[in-house]
Amino acid sequence: MLDLLFHNVTIPHSSERMDVGISDGIITYLAKTEDEVAPAKEVIEADGRVLLPGLVEPHIHLDKAYLLDQMEQDATNLTEAIQFTSDLKKSFTKEDIRRRSVKVLEKCVGYGVTHLRCHVEVDPIVGLKGMEVLLELRETFRDQVEIQLVVFPQEGIFKQPGTTDLMEKAMLLGADVVGGIPYNDNDAVEHIDFVFALAAKCNKPIDFHVDFSDDPTQLAIRDIVKRTLAYGYQGKVSVGHLTSLASVPYDEAKLIAADIAKAGISVMALPATDLFLNGRSDQERVRRGVTPVKLLLEKGANVSFGTNNIQNPFTPFGTGDPLDIALLLAHVAQLGTRQDAELLLDMATVQAAKAIGLKDHGIALYNKADFILFDTTNPRQILLERPPRQTIWKRGVKQRTIVTERR
Ligand SMILES: [Zn+2]
């Protein structure tokens, strides 16, 4: 007997109504809806409403969220955003980091985020404070949202003596992913080499902030492709931003996009931050400054999107709801068809899951029972009308009935 059966749901990529059954937190039954209902302790009559896998937030910063009140002035470009945050970071305490991180996590859980990858700053300014707090919160929240922690050298690695040791220590403490940011260091190649060597030593995946500009010559992605192949790291490398690629001449960009796809590198668009900080020097024909999503998809790359920052110098907006970013990306990447709406929901779930290395996410047999039931029978409406997320389940356990009306 099943623990729980969803009877008569609409699920992604199925034209038929389906029944989805779970036992011990795992999907163990998946069949077309028939008159006869599989025996279950609890049956949810869904009347065709949409059941989605849990949302996956593949790229977010918790430790520097909600800094607007602490800022003396607003940032108008990337250099200022990095500098202002670096200055504020000097006064971060563990309590302060915990309070702001918990505020984001609680919101994310309420929106139906069941997995989240968080970049945690590790450098001589903040030391391991943020990592220690987030390691604790990873445990505290584990029954609500599974958190992956990226060791993130925001201030550069070699530009800030002492960072290499701190990064190694953070990995030993239990971080999940090695991060990097080649555009903020003395030498991008040296930076990339260190990240790959550390990841290979720890046998962990890699997640870079890369090529965050409108400069078509800033293409560290080429070196990342080369190292990915040399280390046999296909499928274990993700990159966020990659906005320079949008300024590269199209024929060249096509070749780079194809190389990214061949190397199995996942790309995360971060449109809220990218739109806010890029294109600032363009007085006419202002560029959007977002990675070329359609081109990357056309060449076969795995593309998803992330919130990145919430209400700080890098992005003075943000709620933590991945569906906000889905709608923003729909506008900016001109993804407006019914198929595009389904693609955006895939990007927020299974494609983001692939980007962060999850093997058992999505509505398929023997995957984890992480779901959201929406009050609509039409997946496109999830993007357009933001119907309430009626109920959320994490590994088969009902989380809470929330009403996330449109704001
Ligand atoms: Zn980021």
UniProtKB/TrEMBL annotation:
Domain Amidohydrolase, residue spans: 72-379
Gene3D superfamilies: Metal-dependent hydrolases, Urease, subunit C, domain 1
SUPFAM superfamilies assigned: Composite domain of metallo-dependent hydrolases, Metallo-dependent hydrolases
Highest taxon of the lineage: Bacteria
Name of the protein described by the UniProt record: Amidohydrolase family protein
